[in-house]
Each structure stands twice: as structure tokens, then as C-alpha cells.
Design a protein that fits this description.
Layout: H1 2-6, E1 7-9, E2 17-22, H2 25-37, E3 43-47, E4 50-56, H3 58-67, H4 71-121, H5 129-140, H6 146-152, H7 159-184
Length: 185
């Protein structure tokens, strides 16, 4: 009855929060004791002349709705929780994918720059055939992932093999830069 008389649950699209307004301190204590008997640890605070008992957390609020037999409210609450969970999961996946794509683009740009330096200073023909093939693939397919480059190689190469060869190309370009700097001095 207390929940019907003075209770509310915030919009479940925001952090989960249930409140029951109690007119007296002793009543707020009684409500928290009753919640505790169901293993729901409620807390309360004074707001103006009233006391507000509250629960935080989706699990606790769902259990509260089950205990007070608010089945329709529980179903609606759980539906919103499910949608919110799916939306959050999708956002995490999109953020992760975006970060991976950004990382791939920056790495590809650096690799292309290094391959360009090698091509300009010594020519790609000076590279061993294994490195030359990977360099040519990277130049032709700048947006490709390491796995995709590996699938395009003849014979196909693992992502690890492509990464190793690109690291060797990057190391060679770094040595060219260092030699160029020391020759300038």
C-alpha cells in the first residue's frame, strides 16, 4: 500500500531508482525493515517534511515489483530493461568497431607513407619478394584489414604474417629516415 500511496519509479531509460515517500521517520524505518526482510536493502533520507525510502538497481527494483505483485509493471519494467540492455550492447559494439576502424586507418596511413619512402629511396623491387607483395597489396588496398590483405596474398597469409611483414617494412623505413638524418649532419 505504501508504494501505491507514495511510490514512484523513475524512467528506466535513466539510472534505476525507486522511491516511496513516508510522512514520518518511523514509517520510513518500518518500510526499510520490511524491504530488508526480503533481502532488499533500502535506504532513506529526509526531503523537506517527508522521508524518502529508495532502492537503486534494476535487480532490486524488479524484485520489489515481484514481491508487491505488480506484475504488469514488472513486465513493462523488464521490457524496458531488455531494450536498454540491447541498445547499450549495440552502442558498445559500434564504439569498439569505430575504434578498431580508426586504428586500422591510422596504421594503414603510416604503412603507406613508409612504403612510399622505400619506393622513393630504393624502389620496391629492392625489397625481398615476400615484403614486396605485402607492400603492393597495401598500396592497392589501403582500407583493407590485415586479415583481408592476407586473404588477397598468393598464397594466402595469416594476419600475423602480414603484420610481421608490415613491421619489417616499417623498420626498414625507419632505418632509411635515420640514415637520411645522419647524412644531413
Amino acid at each position: 500500500g505504501s508504494f501505491l500511496a507514495g511510490g514512484s519509479i523513475n524512467n528506466p531509460t535513466t539510472p534505476y531508482h525507486l522511491e516511496i515517500v513516508a510522512p514520518y521517520h518511523s514509517y520510513a524505518q518500518l518500510i526499510t525493515d520490511m524491504l530488508s526482510s526480503f533481502n532488499l536493502e533500502g535506504r532513506y533520507f529526509k526531503r523537506k517534511e517527508d522521508f524518502v525510502v529508495y532502492l537503486k538497481g534494476a535487480e532490486k527494483i524488479g524484485e520489489f515489483l515481484r514481491i508487491v505483485s505488480a506484475h504488469n509493471a514488472l513486465l513493462a519494467f523488464e521490457n524496458v530493461r531488455i531494450v536498454k540492455g540491447v541498445r547499450n550492447r549495440i552502442n558498445r559494439l559500434v564504439n569498439c568497431e569505430t575504434a578498431n576502424l580508426t586504428k586500422t586507418v591510422f596504421a594503414s596511413q603510416e604503412q603507406i607513407s613508409n612504403i612510399g619512402l622505400i619506393e622513393k629511396t630504393m624502389g620496391l623491387k629492392a625489397l625481398p619478394p615476400t615484403l614486396r607483395q605485402v607492400a603492393q597489396l597495401r598500396l592497392r588496398f589501403p582500407e583493407a584489414t590485415l586479415q583481408e590483405l592476407g586473404e588477397m596474398a598468393v598464397p594466402p597469409l595469416s594476419k600475423s604474417a602480414i603484420n610481421h611483414r608490415l613491421r619489417r617494412i616499417n623498420t626498414l623505413a625507419q632505418k632509411i629516415r635515420e640514415n637520411s638524418t645522419s647524412n644531413d649532419n
